[in-house]
Structure formats: structure tokens, C-alpha cells
Amino acid sequence: MDRVRLGTSGVEVSRIGLGMWQAGGKNWGTDVNDRDCVAAIVRGVERGVDLVDTAEVYGDGHSEEVVGKAIKEVGRDNIVVATKVAGYHMRERDVERACRGSLRRLGVRTIDLVQVHWPDPWDQVPFQEGFRALERLWKRGTIRAIGVSNFAVRDLKDAQAHLSRTEIASNQVRYNLLQREVEAEVLPYCRREGIPILAWSPLAQGVLAGTYRPGKKPKDSIRKQNDLFSDRNLREAEKVLRVLRGIAKSRGRTVAQVALGWLAKDPLVIPIPGAKRPAQAEENAGAAEIRLTREELRRIEAASRRVRLDTF
Predict the structure, then answer these.
(1) Fewer CB in a 10 Å sphere around the end CB: N or C, the chain?
(2) Which domains does the chain have, with CATH numbers?
(3) Has 58 been annotated as catalytic?
(4) 133: which residues sit within 8 A by CB, 6+ positions away?
């Protein structure tokens, strides 16, 4: 599988990653269990996927523990570990405490990528405090790269201004064929600055896998509250899904693989789809092999631009 370097950090990751939000507990449905999530990571590694993304807030650290179990199975050298410090842990003392907790749950001595999960609008902690602590951990070798998640351009600029010896290695944001808001400002800025995008929810929580439709919706607590699953929005998504199905059929691929391939066409963008089971990890990894033609990209783009989602 092709590899992508995270900025100037020297950390390289697989072209497709694996998100482990769903490993945090039962909020993603009763069919989620630790054994299958570990097996999904193992299968992903077997197919060349080494970037595994988690966070301290996913199940209050449970997702990190699941990733830690997978690391023991496949070996530390075979996984690039990415986790996140919660936005409310950006006071200097809290950053170090949070990272110690992540190290313990993951069972590692070094974390490859530590990301600030979001800019906290409530505590109003100056970025200087948290990023100074992160850079200190970087200098010690406790973390190999510093990233952010859900940061707008103004936040990215502010964060970078408080790093003196290293640079922001990545920005993890929501990005898929139905939700393309980052293309307005964030993606162009990151392209200019050479900051890779880790695309979370690259399959729009399963909508772009063709799994759901009006009358067939997910029952888990995470997706039940998502606007994407209104009847109208699911009907709007069909505008894209019809095109994806046609391309998938002609190529002997799945709808999800084509949707991921559309994202992965951009050398700056690294999709990190989730997987509950090994078969899903296998399917996701296969997306790295897809090279969409100009005509296929044109058809996908035209369909995507016709989508008009309702937000509530």
C-alpha cells in the first residue's frame, strides 16, 4: 500500500487508515465487541493498513485499550498509533496527565501522533499552554508528531504559532462526498501549508456504503441523532449512490470502496474509515487499489454537487 508522510514530522502512514471510535463501547450498536475490533485491526495490518486512530474520550479510554490489545497481537512496529487529547485537557498539567493515561492504556512507550481533539470553547485555555506541553513531550520523544482535529484555519494558525521546534503534522476533519465543508477554507489552507488531512467519517457513517435508506436506518445512539439519516437526506444521498453503484459494478468493487477511492485520489487526504469486523477492514483496505478515471471522477463530482442536505 502507498504511504503518506505527515507533514515534516517524518512519520509515514498507510494511504488508508482505520478509525476506532466504534471500539469505545456500545454506543455504536450491540453488534460491536472488543474481539471483533481487535480482529479488524489485525486484518487491516495484514492488508497494509498501519494507521490506527483512537482517542482518550472514546469510551473513556476503552478504545485505546482495544487498540493496545491489537498492538500486542501484531507488534508495536506494525502500527502507527494516533490518539487524541480532549479539548478540555489542554491545560499544561492536564496534557501531560492525559498523555500518560493514553500511553498506559495503549501499552506503548511512544505515541506516533497525538492530536488535540477540538478547540475547547468553554474553558478558554490559551493555545500556548497546551501546545507548549505537547512540544515538551515531543522533545522528550514521548510523542513523534503533533496534530489537531476539527480545527478551522484560524485555529490552525494559532496552534502553529505556539510551536517553536516542530510543526502541525495533520488536521483530522469530517470529509466525505456528502459533507464537503472543509473544501471552502480548511483544505486549501492545508494544501498550501503541506498539512495532510485525516478524513473522519469518510463514508458518512455508512450512508456512502449504501447500507441505509428510508425504512432502513441504524438504531445505535450515535447515528440515530445524526441529520444524515433523515428520510429526505437519505433520498438526497441516492443522487451520489446511483453513480457510485454503477462504477462499483463495472469495476467489481463495492460502493464503499469507490467512495473512499474518491477521497484517496487527493495525495493530501487520508481516509480513516471505521471497521467493526475483519471483513470491513478488508473492504476498506481494498479502496487503496482503486484509481478512478477522469470520467468517473467527473460523474461522481457532478452527482455530489447536486446533493442538498437538510440540517436541523
Answers:
(1) C
(2) 3-213+254-291 (3.20.20.100)
(3) yes
(4) 92, 93, 95, 96
Residue 227 · residue 309 · CB < 8 Å? yes
Catalytic one of 58, 88, 175, 212: 58
Q: Report CA-CA distances (Å) from 76 to 42, 44, 73, 81, 108.
A: 12, 14, 9, 9, 8
Per-residue pLDDT tens, the chain, 312 aa: give them.
899 999 999 999 999 999 999 998 778 888 899 999 999 999 999 999 999 999 999 999 999 999 999 999 999 999 999 999 999 999 999 999 999 999 999 999 999 999 999 998 888 888 999 999 999 999 999 999 999 999 999 999 999 999 999 999 999 999 999 999 999 999 999 999 999 999 999 999 999 999 999 989 998 888 988 999 999 999 999 999 999 999 999 999 999 999 999 999 999 999 999 999 999 999 999 999 999 999 999 999 999 999 999 986
**269-271 and 18-19 as β-strands: parallel, antiparallel, unpaired?**
unpaired
Phi-psi region of 275 (alpha: psi -120 to 50; beta: other; left: phi over 0): beta
CA distance 114 to 146: 5
User: What is the identity of the amino acid at 153?
Assistant: V
Q: Rounded distance, CA 65 to CA 41, Å?
A: 13
Q: Give the Å distances, CA to CA, from 38 to 44, 118, 159, 185, 189.
A: 10, 26, 34, 36, 36
Which element (helix H / strand E) includes 85? Answer: strand 80-85
Distance of CA 265 to CAs 185, 255, 307, Å?
19, 16, 21
User: What number of residues does the chain have?
Assistant: 312
